[in-house]
C-alpha cells in the first residue's frame, strides 16, 4: 500500500511495509489514488517525492499474483497487471509538478519503469540494484516499457546494457551511465538529497500546467503510447 504526506509544497508518496512492494492490483490502485490526491491538491511550486519503506523500492510485477493457483504466471494475469500498470506511468508523466524518485534498495522490472517515469532518480550507492529482469525471465516487454526506456535513456549503450544484457547495476555505475542522477551512501543521505532537491524545485513556484505540458512535449512518442494528448499552453498576457 501507499501513503501520501504533505510537507509544505512537497508531497511524499511512500510505498509502505517491509516487503518487496511488488505491483499487484491492490498496490497499483493505492499508488494511483495517491497520485490523484497529489494532483488534486497541487499548487504552484508543488513537488512529488516517491520513496519506500524497507530495503526495496520495488521488485516489479507481483509474479505470485500472476501465477494464481498455478506454478507459472499465466499470460492473462501478466497482461492484466501490465495493463493496470500503464496508467501509473501515464499519471507520472502528466503530473503537474516536478517528480523525484528516491530509490531505496532494489528497483527491478516494473519497479525500474516506475522510477524512470519520474523527472529525477536518486539511488543508493551500494544497497540494491537496478535490473530489468524480463530477458532472464523470458518475458517480452510491453511496448510502453520499450518506448519509455527509449525516451528516458538517451544512450544506446545504456539501453543495451539494461535490456539486452540484463545487467544488475549498482548506484554509482548507473550514475556514470546516465541512467540516474545521483547515488548516496545511506538511507538518510538519500532522503536528505531528495528533500533538498525538492525544496530547490519548489522555490521556483512553477505553474503546474506549464510544467506538465513542457515535460510531455519532450516525450511525444511516449505520450502517444500512453494515450496522453499534447496541449499547447497559451501564455498569460
From TrEMBL:
The keyword Lipid metabolism applies. Pfam families: ECH_1. Keywords: Lipid metabolism. GO terms for biological process: fatty acid beta-oxidation. SUPFAM superfamilies: ClpP/crotonase (SSF52096). InterPro entries: ClpP/crotonase-like_dom_sf, Enoyl-CoA_hydra/iso. GO terms for molecular function: delta(3)-delta(2)-enoyl-CoA isomerase activity. The keyword Nucleotide-binding does not apply. GO terms for cellular component: peroxisome. Transmembrane segments: none annotated. Its EC number is 5.3.3.8. Pathway: Lipid metabolism; fatty acid beta-oxidation. It catalyses: a (3Z)-enoyl-CoA = a 4-saturated (2E)-enoyl-CoA; a (3E)-enoyl-CoA = a 4-saturated (2E)-enoyl-CoA. Belongs to the enoyl-CoA hydratase/isomerase family. This is Delta(3)-Delta(2)-enoyl-CoA isomerase.
Amino acid at each position: 500500500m501507499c501513503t501520501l504526506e504533505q510537507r509544505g509544497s512537497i508531497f511524499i508518496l511512500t510505498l509502505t511495509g517491509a516487503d518487496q512492494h511488488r505491483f499487484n492490483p491492490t498496490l497499483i490502485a493505492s499508488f494511483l489514488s495517491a497520485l490523484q490526491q497529489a494532483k488534486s491538491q497541487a499548487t504552484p511550486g508543488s513537488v512529488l517525492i516517491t520513496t519506500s519503506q524497507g530495503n526495496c523500492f520495488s521488485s516489479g510485477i507481483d509474479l505470485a499474483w500472476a501465477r494464481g493457483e498455478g506454478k507459472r504466471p499465466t499470460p492473462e494475469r501478466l497482461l492484466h497487471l501490465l495493463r493496470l500498470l500503464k496508467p501509473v506511468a501515464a499519471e507520472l508523466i502528466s503530473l503537474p509538478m516536478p517528480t523525484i524518485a528516491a530509490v531505496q534498495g532494489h528497483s527491478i522490472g516494473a519497479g525500474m519503469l516506475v522510477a524512470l517515469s519520474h523527472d529525477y532518480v536518486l539511488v543508493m550507492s551500494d544497497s540494491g540494484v537496478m535490473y530489468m529482469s524480463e530477458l532472464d525471465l523470458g518475458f517480452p516487454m510491453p511496448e510502453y516499457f520499450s518506448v519509455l526506456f527509449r525516451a528516458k535513456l538517451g544512450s544506446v549503450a545504456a539501453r543495451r546494457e539494461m535490456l539486452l544484457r540484463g545487467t544488475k547495476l549498482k548506484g554509482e555505475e548507473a550514475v556514470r551511465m546516465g541512467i540516474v542522477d545521483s547515488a548516496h551512501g545511506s538511507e538518510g543521505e538519500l532522503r536528505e538529497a531528495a528533500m533538498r532537491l525538492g525544496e530547490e524545485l519548489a522555490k521556483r513556484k512553477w505553474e503546474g500546467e506549464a510544467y506538465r505540458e513542457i515535460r510531455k512535449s519532450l516525450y511525444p512518442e511516449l505520450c502517444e503510447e500512453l494515450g496522453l494528448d499534447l496541449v499547447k499552453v497559451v501564455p498569460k498576457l
